[in-house]
Amino acid sequence: MNATPRWLDPEQKAAWDHFIRMQEKLVGRLSRHLQSDSKLSAADYVVLAALTESEGGRMRFLNLTRRVEWEKSRMSHQVGRMAKRGLVTREECPEDGRGAFVVATPEGYRAIEEAAPLHVEHVRRLFIDALTQEELDTLGRLSARVLAHMEQQPD
């Protein structure tokens, strides 16, 4: 680590502050709409989206944890809460006694299928409609670049 901090210049700080504020406000609003529209939390939605987009609606627990960038304990608690509500089940992995699968139930599929149309409409209204197609393309490229850069950095 450098001994002298590399402070952000005013333009960098403004860009960072605007990005963080936008992300927090957007996620907060989307989460509130999701909860009021579907009774799913943002965490429920993230887990169900990952599962229902995967082969057979199932993922190994550790792969799901990595996919959503959560700690194992957070995922364990989330899966437990969702299992109590019938949205997911946990299945042991026959090849690996220590591994487990998280599986979307029919109720979990129903919940995400009902929530997704309203959620995507809020995403469109709050985010997509604010930008031109060229701006969305640029944002997509920039986001992909930052994600690739982060993959090269130590965690």
From TrEMBL:
InterPro entries (alphabetical): HTH_MarR-typ, MarR/SlyA-like, WH-like_DNA-bd_sf, WH_DNA-bd_sf
Q: Which PROSITE patterns match?
A: HTH_MARR_2
Q: Which SUPFAM superfamilies match?
A: Winged helix' DNA-binding domain
Q: Which GO terms describe its biological process?
A: response to stress
Q: Which Pfam families match?
A: MarR_2
Q: What top-level branch of life does the organism fall under?
A: Bacteria
Designated name of the protein: Winged helix-turn-helix transcriptional regulator
Which organism is the protein's source?
A: Streptomyces lonarensis
